[in-house]
């Protein structure tokens, strides 16, 4: 059975037919060719497929595409690009928080969701939020440092905006 | 060493931008028109005869386009030993052994068809334990062992389950042991574990109608994949192209050849159609490759001055169903069997044993974490037994200049300094100069050493060329699996040619048709090998630039320098910009000299020799050694057995820190992987039916952000490696080698218990603590420090006699302690 | 693993959900889907998924008739954990709910889903048991209220009948104010099923009342009344005996996460810790 869904992805309205058994992850990767979110386990354990659904971090592999009708999805592709990186992306570069890069989009999206909810997380809050994003390369230390650094930048930015 | 401007600085990764934006394309991100999806039919039996494979029902499933079975491709493959066929033909050797594969228009159709492949098996007795496997009369996993092609340095024993046996005989072990004042014997075990790269294995192959094969694959070694595919399918190298897109982690699991032959076999059955074979996470655990298990028995003889005089090491490796790659782990563990120590008299046996378990292969450290788990706990135990500080005991016995390794290689000043690493860790963690000890709080140390395990002719090469705008392009075929090779290669070129980093592009996704040869991205060899090749290439580029520059400036070459993207006459200060030279220099009158400036350069290890076949004695068996040490500070929860690693301090002699940010990443990443294998990871294979019991990320746990040490600190000693690029040597693997042993030693310091079997789970800790309490209550131990649950041989006369009586050649296999 | 084929239908009302379920044999209700989708990949055959997330009333957290709180079946755990009234009145539930899965998972997973799986390892189930919550289940004919302590029958088995939809979970007013202390042992610190966990809750005015619940040590989440009574009768001096009562009450098995012996041992240790923390 096919379902027609209308969903905003990175601010762009998309109207597509999806299969009932198609996941959000497959919709992004196979239908929209947005391959930033990765399939690492397909069992909700690794977090490589993390994207934002209505602003909240969700595992793309545990969400059905058919559920998306009327909702809003944000992926790494909508976050920033060369010359206009998001502070999280810049901080990941600065702190060498990237190695193989496979987990990176998921980690960045989880961090983004967290910082939007909690602009000044403690180390423990940050680690807790990231516990669903596995990284086998970095040992997490530089990732944690990068996120705290980005949080600082983002706080300064929002302060400037409100000032 | 001269001052460096770019080498030694934390320049950001050159591939960082594409990774933080999600732009980097991994194999699974590539779209191929009319691609077919494959599903592999795998053995449910650990060991069985394959009587028949029937695919007729599967072929009737709509959308199925190809099926391949063992009889279609009766070719053997394997990097060091060709003991495996693409699909099992008459025998399956582990749960997960491929029997057939199907390719269909959709993954659903392939999956449905796979369920309809009928295989008749006749189950055979399975070897699920190495100790059982080497017993005389054990069922044979490979009855045809004598018929396989084997590289000259691998020595299997046909008629047994031994797929490789390396012997190390140095000095007079037996004679020295007899004279020792103290003898200690212990057995340690390490289970099979899995690499768990975040990107599972995936390969896409296409065979076009002219017969040309194209493979896109997540692999560490495009040229080795090509070479082995060509051998396997009897194809000329010119007709197989291997392309490696961005790779999502390897850790050794993507070295050699993996899913590629399955993809090519199916592609041959569906000409013109790309065929994608992707491991599920479950398959990743049991059906790709794993790290081998180890059972290690060590005997250490110490003289009255606390010097180890005699050391016996008996390593039994659980290689799984096939030994193609793992046999070389067995070899490396053999010629490194004494770790970071100077043992004057050595009896070493490293024996690979076939079992009916997942296939062992390379994994970050290539056997070293496993043997260090045994060696470093043994040294610690001996120190405690002898009532010497473990740091002192290590310093007294460690390798260094003028000391000899187990193969008799004499180390030099430039070989690296483990003593300095030990001292640094000691200084930071205050292991010796400690204050009052808190209960259940402990500190421990472990050393590490590793050399690249590779053929003596393992080569890397680069192609370097300038674009019209003087952008330097460097083509490499070493793979940036995350370690930062592309960045390091660019740093060396920037340094040598005085170019800013942004004027360099490293082409890091090799295609074998166009890219320079590289043996493999393994063995912590790329910074060293590719780095050297880049520096050599830069010399040649400079020569070419100066040749033209000299004519352009009317100055002799000896007066020229390369600076700020110009060739400059040092005397007149006149200069010519590189952009005016790199594709040919044109004089004002239109006359043109020179041409596109480009070069290729290579690196091959210098002067490596084969080991002596009976004793492994050899003056230069490996290219270089990297030494290091890690110290751990932890607390134990005595009621639950939980460990909290508060501090982890690492120090390595890397010769030269090329990029502090990257090397920190290697160090922290290795430490946390080491913590994972040390305290939580184990691929559980059912002892009865050989089936994996935890082949998912829900059941096989790797560390999360919450599981890292509270504080990690990294230090580096820089004793230049003479043949290293600006003095650098490898570091990628070494960072995870000593971690589990350092944790174990800290645990002993904290509460007097020893855990011999990796991993150190809370449950094992609690059990050992209870056992210790029980013993103490019963008054078994007068000396609490020695009250370990492990079987430490006290330095008693009886023990010594027994050890002396033991025939060195006839080492008895001992079972690891019950877990 | 692939998701097998199934139909997806989103219901707008409870009645519609029940009809959609009834007209298709093999249908399943889906709230957050985090467990159901994972299960469908490996073992569970489902012909139709009836999504209940778009039913407005199931997305509410409201005050119940007796002054307690009723939590709609489609409310995500993260929303539950952030809800001011729930946080204030039922902190023990929040303490357990924020241990389920990981951060992102809790944005989808629901209390009802965690309950309906009837897993002995469910972190929230033990809180519901301790807080004497009630499950409201509805089918085509009627609605009924199932006390949580009658809900769990065995691993994966609950008192729900075929076709019954859990619409809400009601926390009684009398359980309000219970402070919780949840102690969890797992193979790693981040995102793991509990190998053993113990919830101790303490509340009540005047003479304190205790609740002790155990996770992953019996075929169902388990409440240990003997331990509670000891504490209520004798106060903090009974901690060791209460912990022993909990140890004796459990019936753990050995599996990949822990051995039966270790689990039993930990029940004693963690119960004592929980009681000590609240005493």
Q: Can you give a write-up of this model?
A:
The complex is a heterotrimer of chains A (163), B (819) and C (279). By secondary structure, chain A is an alpha+beta fold. Chain A has two domains: 2-78, Ubiquitin-like (UB roll); 87-162, [2Fe-2S]-binding domain (DNA polymerase, domain 1). Helix content of chain A is 37%, strand content 17%. Chain A has five helices and five strands; from the N terminus they run ββαβββαααα. Chain A has helices at 24-31, 87-94, 104-117, 123-130, 141-162; strands spanning 2-9, 12-19, 50-53, 56-59, 72-74. Chain A has a five-stranded mixed β-sheet, sandwiched between helices. Chain B is an alpha+beta fold and 819 residues long. Chain B has three domains: 16-23 and 458-603, Aldehyde oxidase/xanthine dehydrogenase, molybdopterin binding domain (Aldehyde Oxidoreductase, domain 4), CATH 3.30.365; 34-124 and 212-270, Alpha-Beta Complex (Aldehyde Oxidoreductase, domain 3), CATH 3.90.1170; 167-194 and 290-454 and 610-810, Aldehyde Oxidoreductase, domain 4 (2-Layer Sandwich), CATH 3.30.365. In chain B, the strands form nine sheets. Chain B has a seven-stranded mixed β-sheet with strand order 3-7-1-14-11-12-13. In chain B, a hairpin with a 5-residue loop joins strand 21 and strand 22. Chain C has 279 residues and is an alpha+beta fold. Chain C is built from ten helices and 14 strands. Chain C has helices at 14-22, 34-42, 77-82, 84-89, 91-97, 111-116, 123-130, 225-234, 239-249, 260-278, and strands spanning 7-10, 27-30, 48-51, 61-63, 69-72, 134-138, 143-147, 152-154, 157-158, 165-171, 179-185, 196-203, 209-215, 222-223. The chains are: A alpha+beta (163), B alpha+beta (819), C alpha+beta (279). Chains in contact: A-B, A-C, B-C. The interface between A and B is large, with 57 and 57 residues.
Q: Characteristics of this structure?
A:
heterotrimer, B: 819 residues, alpha+beta, Aldehyde Oxidoreductase, domain 4, Aldehyde Oxidoreductase, domain 3, 5-stranded mixed sheet, 32 strands, 24% strand, globular, C: 279 residues, Uridine Diphospho-n-acetylenolpyruvylglucosamine Reductase, domain 2, Uridine Diphospho-n-acetylenolpyruvylglucosamine Reductase, domain 3, Enolase-like, domain 1, 5-stranded antiparallel sheet, 4-stranded antiparallel sheet, 14 strands, 23% strand
């Amino acid at each position: 059975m096919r379902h027609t869904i209308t969903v905003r992805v990175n601010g762009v309205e998309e109207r597509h037919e999806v299969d009932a058994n198609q996941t959000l992850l497959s919709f992004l990767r196979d239908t929209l060719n947005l391959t930033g979110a990765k399939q690492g386990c397909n069992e909700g354990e690794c977090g490589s497929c993390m994207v934002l659904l209505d602003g909240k971090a969700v595992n793309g592999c545990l969400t059905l595409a058919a559920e998306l009708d009327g909702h809003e999805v944000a992926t790494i592709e909508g976050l920033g690009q060369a010359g206009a990186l998001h502070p999280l992306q810049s901080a990941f570069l600065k702190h060498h928080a990237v190695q193989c890069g496979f987990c990176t989009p998921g980690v960045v999206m989880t961090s983004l969701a967290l910082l939007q909810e909690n602009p000044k997380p403690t180390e423990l809050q940050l680690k807790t939020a990231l516990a669903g994003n596995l990284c086998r390369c970095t040992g997490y230390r530089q990732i944690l440092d990068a996120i705290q650094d980005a949080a600082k930048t983002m706080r300064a930015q929002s302060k400037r905006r409100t000032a | 060493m001269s001052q460096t401007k770019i080498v030694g600085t934390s320049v950001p990764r050159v591939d960082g931008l594409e990774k933080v934006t999600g732009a980097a394309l991994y194999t699974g991100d590539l779209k191929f028109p009319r691609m077919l999806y494959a599903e592999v039919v795998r053995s449910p039996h650990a060991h069985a005869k394959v009587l028949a494979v029937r695919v007729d029902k599967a072929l009737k499933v709509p959308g199925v386009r190809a099926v391949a079975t063992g009889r279609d491709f009766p070719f053997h493959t394997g990097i060091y030993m060709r003991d495996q066929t693409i699909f099992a033909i008459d025998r399956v050797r582990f749960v997960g052994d491929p029997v057939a594969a199907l390719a269909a228009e959709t993954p659903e159709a392939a999956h449905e068809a796979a369920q309809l492949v009928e295989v008749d098996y006749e189950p055979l007795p399975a070897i699920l334990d190495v100790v059982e496997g080497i017993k005389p009369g054990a069922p044979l996993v490979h009855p045809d062992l004598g018929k396989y092609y084997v590289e000259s340095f691998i020595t299997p024993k046909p008629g047994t389950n031994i797929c490789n046996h390396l012997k190390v005989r140095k000095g007079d072990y037996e004679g020295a042991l007899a004279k020792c004042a103290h003898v200690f014997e212990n057995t340690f075990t390490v289970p099979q574990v899995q690499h768990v790269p975040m990107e599972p294995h995936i390969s896409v192959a296409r065979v076009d109608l002219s017969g040309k094969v194209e493979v896109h694959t997540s692999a560490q070694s495009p040229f080795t994949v090509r070479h082995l595919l060509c051998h396997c399918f009897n194809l000329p190298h010119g007709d197989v192209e291997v392309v490696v897109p961005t790779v999502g982690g390897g850790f050794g699991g993507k070295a050699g050849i993996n899913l590629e032959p399955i993809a090519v076999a199916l592609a041959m059955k569906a000409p013109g159609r790309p065929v994608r074979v992707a491991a599920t996470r479950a398959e990743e655990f049991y059906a790709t490759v794993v790290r081998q298990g180890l059972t290690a028995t060590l005997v250490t003889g110490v003289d009255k001055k606390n010097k180890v005089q005699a050391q016996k090491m008996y390593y039994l490796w659980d290689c799984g169903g096939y030994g193609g790659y793992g046999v070389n782990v067995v070899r490396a563990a053999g010629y490194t069997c004494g770790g970071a120590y100077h043992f004057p008299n050595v009896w070493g046996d490293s024996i690979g044993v076939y079992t009916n378990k997942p296939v062992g292969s390379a994994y970050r450290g290539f056997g070293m974490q496993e043997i260090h788990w045994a060696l470093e706990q043994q040294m610690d135990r001996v120190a405690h037994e002898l009532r010497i500080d473990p740091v002192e005991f290590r310093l007294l016995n460690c390798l260094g200049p003028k000391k000899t390794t187990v193969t008799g290689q004499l180390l030099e000043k430039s070989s690296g300094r483990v003593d300095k690493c030990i001292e640094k860790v000691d200084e930071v963690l205050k292991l010796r100069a400690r204050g009052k000890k808190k209960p259940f709080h402990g500190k421990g140390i472990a050393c590490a050493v590793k050399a690249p395990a590779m053929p003596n002719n393992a080569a890397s090469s680069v192609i370097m060329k300038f674009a019209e705008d003087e952008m330097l392009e460097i083509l490499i075929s070493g793979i940036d699996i995350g370690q930062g090779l592309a960045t390091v290669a660019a740093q060396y070129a920037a340094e040598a040619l005085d170019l800013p980093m942004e004027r360099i592009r490293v082409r890091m996704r090799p295609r074998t048709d166009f890219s320079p040869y590289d043996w493999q991205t393994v063995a912590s060899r790329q910074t060293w090998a590719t780095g050297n090749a880049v520096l050599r290439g830069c010399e040649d580029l400079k020569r070419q630039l100066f040749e033209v520059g000299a004519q352009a400036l009317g100055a002799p070459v000896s007066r020229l320098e390369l600076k700020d993207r110009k060739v400059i006459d040092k005397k007149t200060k006149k200069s010519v910009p590189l952009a005016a030279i790199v594709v040919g220099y044109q004089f004002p009158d239109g006359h043109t000299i020179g041409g596109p400036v480009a070069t290729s350069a290579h690196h091959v290890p210098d002067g490596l020799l084969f080991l002596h076949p009976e004793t492994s004695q050899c003056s230069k068996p490996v290219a270089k050694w990297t030494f290091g040490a890690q110290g751990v500070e932890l607390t134990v929860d005595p009621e639950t057995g939980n460990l909290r690693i508060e501090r982890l301090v690492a120090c390595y002699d890397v010769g030269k820190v090329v990029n502090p940010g990257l090397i920190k990443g290697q160090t922290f990443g290795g430490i946390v992987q080491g913590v994972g294998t040390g305290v939580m990871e184990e691929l559980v294979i059912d002892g009865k039916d050989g089936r994996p019991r935890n082949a998912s990320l829900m059941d096989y746990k790797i560390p999360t952000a919450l599981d890292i040490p509270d504080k990690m600190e990294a230090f580096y000693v820089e004793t230049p490696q003479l043949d290293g690029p600006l003095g650098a040597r490898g570091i990628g693997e070494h960072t995870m080698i000593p971690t589990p042993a350092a944790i174990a030693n800290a645990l002993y310091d904290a509460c007097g218990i020893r855990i011999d079997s990796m991993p150190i789970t809370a449950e094992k800790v609690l059990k050992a603590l209870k056992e210790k309490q029980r013993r103490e209550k019963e008054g078994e131990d007068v000396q609490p420090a020695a009250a370990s649950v492990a079987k430490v041989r006290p330095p008693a006369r009886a023990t010594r006699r027994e050890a002396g009586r033991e025939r060195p050649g006839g080492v008895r296999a001992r079972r690891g302690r019950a877990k | 693993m692939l998701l097998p084929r199934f139909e997806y239908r989103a219901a707008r009302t409870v009645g519609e959900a029940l009809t959609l379920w009834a007209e298709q044999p093999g249908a399943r209700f889906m709230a957050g889907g985090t467990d159901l989708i994972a299960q469908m990949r490996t073992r569970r055959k489902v012909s139709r998924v009836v999504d209940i997330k778009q039913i407005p009333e199931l997305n509410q957290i409201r005050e119940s008739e007796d002054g307690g709180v009723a939590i709609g079946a489609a409310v995500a755990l993260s929303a539950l954990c952030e809800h001011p009234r729930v946080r204030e009145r039922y902190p023990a539930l929040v303490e357990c709910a924020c241990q389920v899965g990981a951060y992102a998972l809790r944005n989808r997973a629901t209390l009802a889903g965690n309950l309906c799986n009837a897993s002995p390892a469910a972190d929230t189930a033990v809180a519901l048991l301790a807080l004497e919550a009630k499950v409201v289940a509805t089918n085509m004919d009627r609605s009924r209220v199932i006390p949580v302590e009658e809900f769990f029958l065995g691993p994966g088995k609950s008192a729900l009948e075929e076709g019954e939809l859990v619409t809400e979970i009601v926390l009684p007013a009398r359980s309000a104010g219970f402070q919780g202390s949840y102690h969890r042992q797992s193979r790693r610190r981040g995102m793991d099923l509990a190998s053993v966990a113990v919830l101790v809750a303490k509340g009540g005015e005047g003479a304190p009342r205790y609740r002790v619940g155990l996770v992953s040590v019996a075929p169902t989440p388990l409440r240990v009344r003997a331990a509670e009574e000891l504490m209520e009768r004798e106060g903090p001096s009974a901690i060791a005996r209460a912990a022993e009562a909990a140890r004796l009450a459990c019936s753990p098995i050995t599996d990949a996460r822990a051995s039966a012996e270790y689990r039993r041992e930990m029940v004693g240790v963690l119960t004592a810790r929980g009681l000590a923390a609240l005493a």
